[in-house]
Amino acid sequence: MKAWPFLITKNHIRGFSMVTIPEFLQKAGAAHEVVRACSNEFQSGAGEAIYLKGYHESVGVVDMVFRVVQGTERMLGKDSDAILRDDVRRPIPLYEGLVLTERLPDEQLHFTQVQLDAAHKAVEGDFRTFWEAGSDWKVSRDWKHITSDAIELPVAAATGDKLRLHIKESPNLHPPAPPSPPPLREVPPAAQALPKFAPPESPLPALEKDLPKSGMNKTVVFGVVAAVAIGAAYLAYRHSSKPKTKQHGFVQRVGQERQTADIHRNL
Does residue 144 sit in the same domain as residue 213? Predict the structure, then answer.
């Protein structure tokens, strides 16, 4: 498996900086994200390492396996293991390890002390350059750092050389969230579907039933029926409102004639 060494640390003047970074991350402008991912909250003891799962939108998988060690004067070429300190006497931590672009299942993640020692050897000279530069290590918008080439990870000589991994998710190197679904639009009352119009039942169902047989036009038949109904109504009205004087006079005259006849009989 190929991997790329990286180093994040600080010197006696400058704060945390990306000292060594894979070239493809430099071109992607991801140095700042890597520094943020490897924050000083991570700690590793003897025989331990941190495996940080990350993702960069321009690169893809950016997983890092690293350990946190204290810088010593021996790293500067001196014959001493004295701990290096910054200008306020705090120990200088080194986040040194490997960047991987292939992600394996958690049960297949096995790394060894030998492999991280190879990463340490690859960045040791870069740390010395950074330390000696002091305040002259200029940090520009593109971040000044040393690029690293891929190395082939050595195979551990013994099974007992495997490190105990603390597997974590990067707090800032992660895939973008999926887009949110569009909000539901409320249909205004005017745009809602109106109930389907149902015509009223015909007042002449029997006649309508016979129309297909006769072939007559419904409009004509309806007009004829309406005219007949109107005429009948008019005649009924005329009959009810006609004066009854003639009939009344006839009854009165008949009554008088009968009365006259009765008088003559009595005589």
Answer: no
Task: Count the Cβ atoms, other than its own, within 10 Å of residue 71.
Answer: 23
pLDDT at 10: 83
CA 48 to chain centre: 38
For residue 88, the 8-state DSSP code is: T
- Report whether pLDDT(261) > 60: no
Residues 144 and 257 in one domain: no
In whole angstroms, how large is the CA radius of gyration of the chain?
53
Q: Please, which residues have CB within 8 angstroms of residue 103's CB and are 6 or more apart in sequence?
A: 53, 61, 63
Please report whether residue 192 resides in a domain. no
- Other Cβ atoms closer than 10 A to 105: 6
Secondary structure element (H or E) that encloses residue 5, with its range? strand 2-9
3-state secondary structure of 60: strand
Quick check: 142 pLDDT over 50?
Answer: no
Domain total in the chain:
2
| Cα dihedral 56→62→68→70 (10° resolution) | -80
pTM: 0.60
> 3-state DSSP call for residue 17?
strand
- 């149902």: which residue's tokens? 198
Residue numbers of the domain that contains 51: 2-169
The separation between CA 199 and the C-alpha centre of its own chain, rounded to angstroms, equals 48
CA–CA distance, 228 with 231 (Å, rounded to integer): 5
Domain identity same for 124 and 217: no
Query: Residue 79: is it exposed, middle or buried by C-beta count within 10 angstroms (0-12/13-18/19+)?
Result: exposed
Element (H, E) at 23: helix 23-27
